Amino acid sequence: MNCGEIAKKPAVAITPDKTIEEAAALMAQHRVGLLVIVDRENPKKPIGVVSERDIIRSIAQKIPPTATVDKVGTMHNFVYVYDHDPITAAAKKMRQHNVRHVVVVDKEGNLYGVISIRDLIGEKQVLEILARDWVPTQE
């Protein structure tokens, strides 16, 4: 099973000039924990992400809700996988980077979707693959 098969729903995107307040409203409206920040000129090109955690941190740091998402999100070095990667790649990256979402892109780097930890644990077949391929770490 590959990442493209799990990332069934389209990603919810936002442009970098939108505010934290607009991002929070969009997350609530779509019931998601991550928005993909896309290029204003090319909405297929992901350039960053903003998560619920980013919004909480911005509130704690007293950043005004009118600040733009590019000021609080992760820009350019966000965690992603390719749609043809095995689903284990998404799980490994989530664990390695301590994140709950990974962006899925196609071979050209265009936005394909998002995989959340909920997507992984909600699919019996995915859990079976992860259990079969799981290798204990030496921590």
Automatic annotation (TrEMBL):
The keyword Manganese does not apply. Keywords: CBS domain. Coiled coil: none annotated. Pfam families: CBS. InterPro entries: CBS_dom, CBS_dom_sf, Diverse_CBS-Domain. The keyword Nucleus does not apply. Residues 7-66, 74-132 form the CBS domain. This is CBS domain protein. It comes from Pyrobaculum oguniense (strain DSM 13380 / JCM 10595 / TE7).
